Amino acid sequence: MSSFSPAPDPFGQIEAIIARDPGHRGIAPLLLPGSVAAAAHSLVDAEHVLLITGFFIERAGACETDGLGGTAALRHALSALDVPTIIVSDRFCEPVMRAAGFDDMVLYPDAFPLVRAPSHGVAIERVGRHQDGTYRSMRGTDITAMTGPVDELFLDPGDSITIGIGDGGNEMGMGKVRERVIDSIPRGPQIATIVPAHHLLVAGTGDWGAWGLVAGLSLVVGRSLLPSVEQARGWLDRFVAAGAVDPFSLVAEARVDGLSWEVGAALLRDLHRVVDAELGA
């Protein structure tokens, strides 16, 4: 059964929905009220956006499912607004991402000089470096050997506006709340990233955070940009067929962070209800 309930502020309602924590990660101390509205209002003026994603799971030898669906949703929304996007990842996640349909992706740093300076960079469930220069999984495992330094784009963004989306504390953008990660997340001192972002969306999964950003963007532009539940499930199926794995089961299956598709589908429906109610659809 859905846990949706009306609230007066639609942006706050979106934040409450994406902050659900069925995986019991303890993300509540990391939440930044107002982040969805701020990020969405920023993104509405975007001219060219980098979408940075891909989290390699060392124990499975493949990219995880989380982040890919959110990236697809955000690219779909920005395309509807005629905003050009480029998906950026590394060679470790490349096989799954290209097989899943991200055939226009750019590898960092290999081909990156070919990309013009973006107005915005959005990182969806992409690991950021620890203060010691290593990259860490949520288990505290050193995954530096299988992680490209894509987070350099946020450490030196130039004039670009950066938006980080994550669910654990080790993702790009979480440097904005680093001390909170250290104090409140299991293995916080081991995993906390130093990589900040101008705007940070913390959610139960990376995909949910990206959906929340799309919902917020929908409110700003006055029309729904959210994918349908069927469309989002189709993306997930495509990623799984390409070899993306659930990081808990380590199997290529239609689950995100150990959660069944039905959990995510219910949440996406609730986001649709917020957007439709506000827009009078």
Automatic annotation (TrEMBL):
It comes from the Bacteria. InterPro entries: GLUCM_C. Residues 14-271 form the D-glutamate cyclase-like C-terminal domain. One of its GO terms (molecular function) is D-glutamate cyclase activity. GO terms for biological process: glutamate metabolic process. This is D-glutamate cyclase-like C-terminal domain-containing protein.
